[in-house]
Design brief:
With 149 residues, the chain is mainly alpha-helical. It has helices spanning 3-9, 15-32, 40-52, 57-64, 68-80, 102-124, 128-148, and strands at 55-56, 84-89, 92-100. Helix content is 69%, strand content 11%.
């Protein structure tokens, strides 16, 4: 085990060690999802649409922190792959909504299953008290992040 990983396992780990642990966890879990052969950006967009539902193209670009032209290109690639579709926004005829297709939702679900299995494999390697701590800490962090919005 790498020294930095061991340090981050310490209950009194400094913030930098916790950040290193989070980065390693995110990287490991992201790499475990291979369904659909998506890039990180495409996976992020499909995941967002899978969780949130249809979204205006301009708002989707903003949430993903990319320019509208870049989002348009990415959506075009996902559309060609049959994973998303564009529809007119019924509230604003000038706006375009992007939503996951059934095939896109299936890839989203497969990727989520792959990531879940990867995370569970890591958690299974922990001691009982460590598993309990993770099952308490991760949802608490998710709530704190949600409260920031």
């Amino acid at each position: 085990m790498h020294k930095r990983v061991m340090e981050s396992a310490d209950a009194q780990a400094p913030p930098e060690a916790l950040m290193i642990a989070v980065e390693q966890l995110v990287l490991y879990v992201r790499r475990s999802a291979t369904a659909g052969g998506l890039s990180t950006a495409a996976s992020s967009v499909l995941g967002f649409l899978g969780r949130e539902g249809a979204y205006r193209l301009t708002d989707l670009a903003r949430t993903q922190r990319v320019s509208q032209p870049n989002m348009t290109q990415l959506v075009t690639r996902l559309e060609r792959a049959g994973l998303v579709r564009r529809t007119a926004d019924s509230r604003d005829g000038r706006g375009v909504l992007v939503e996951a297709t059934d095939a896109g939702m299936e890839v989203f679900r497969q990727r989520r299953t792959e990531r879940t299995q990867a995370l569970q494999g890591i958690v299974d390697r922990l001691t009982g008290p460590e598993q309990d701590a993770v099952r308490t800490a991760l949802p608490a962090l998710a709530r704190a992040i949600h409260d920031l919005d």
